[in-house]
Write a structure and sequence with these properties.
Oligomer: heterodimer
Low-confidence stretches of chain B: none
Number of strands of chain B: 11
Structural class of chain A: mainly beta
Number of helices of chain B: 0
Order of helices and strands of chain A: EEEEEEEEEEE
Shape of chain A: globular
Distance between the termini of chain B: 40 Å
Distance between the termini of chain A: 37 Å
Radius of gyration of chain B: 13 Å
Largest sheet of chain A: 7 strands, mixed
Shape of chain B: globular
Radius of gyration of chain A: 13 Å
Mean pLDDT of chain B: 95
Number of strands of chain A: 11
Helix content of chain A: under 10%
Helix content of chain B: under 10%
Strand content of chain B: over 45%
Low-confidence stretches of chain A: none
Mean pLDDT of chain A: 94
Chain lengths: 115, 111
């Protein structure tokens, strides 16, 4: 069974540009989560999508947005890139969308570098 | 939100040694996961263990929910065990879906 996949593996952008990151969940999983791992800041929760709806959002500015498609894949968009957006972006998926008990399975990540 | 503290922050071992990593959390949880982050950044699921004890090969984990801590045991360490180990929790009754992560334990195993 294929795990969570993410693309691209690496992404290099310049300040002010937009970045689009993609995630495909494990087959049968309906929930997708996005996390940011920036140097020195640990793993920070960004967004949770379930059945096409945004269910929760972390403490990030509105220029971080996303969506979930009917096939449950997801896209994270970061507008007006800033240097501090450079980080590893990790996507996870889970099966039931139960907020407090689901096991989350992570993809390999997209490393975003903003120059 | 719930606070998660991991100790020690760094651990250096000789191959073959055993180790214990600790995770303390500040509130009741329904979800506790242990991960190993490999050198390429991927988080590998080790255990889903909100309570009780589980074993998988050389790794085992115990969560004492009433005392709000979890332990990850690694026996007969190998160089491939190197990396960062994270504990992550979801507080009981949460509707937010988010995992709260500790800062991790950086494990280095030397041959």
């Amino acid at each position: 069974e294929a795990g969570v996949t993410q693309s691209p593996t690496h992404l290099i952008k310049t300040r002010g540009q937009q970045a689009t990151l993609r995630c495909s969940p494990i087959s049968g999983h309906t929930s997708v989560y996005w996390y940011q791992q920036a140097l020195g800041l640990g793993l920070q929760f960004l967004l949770w999508y379930d059945e096409g709806e945004e269910r929760n959002r972390g403490n990030f500015p509105p220029r971080f947005s996303g969506r979930q498609f009917p096939n449950y894949s997801s896209e994270l968009n970061v507008n007006a890139l800033e240097l501090e957006d450079s980080a590893l972006y990790l996507c996870a998926s889970s099966f039931l969308g139960l907020a407090d008990t689901d096991t989350q399975y992570f993809g390999p990540g997209t490393r975003l570098t903003v120059l | 939100g719930i606070q998660v503290e991991q100790s020690p922050p760094d651990l250096i071992l000789q191959e073959g040694a055993n180790s214990t990593l600790r995770c303390n959390f500040s509130d009741s949880v329904n979800n506790l996961q242990w991960f190993h982050q490999n050198p390429w950044g991927q988080l590998i699921n080790l255990f889903y263990i909100p309570s009780g004890t589980k074993q998988n090969g050389r790794l085992s984990a115990t969560t004492v929910a009433t005392e709000r801590y979890s332990l990850l045991y690694i026996s007969s360490s190998q160089t491939t065990d190197s990396g960062v180990y994270f504990c992550a929790v979801v507080d009981r009754g949460s509707t937010l879906g988010r995992l709260y992560f500790g800062r991790g334990t950086q494990l280095t195993v030397w041959p």
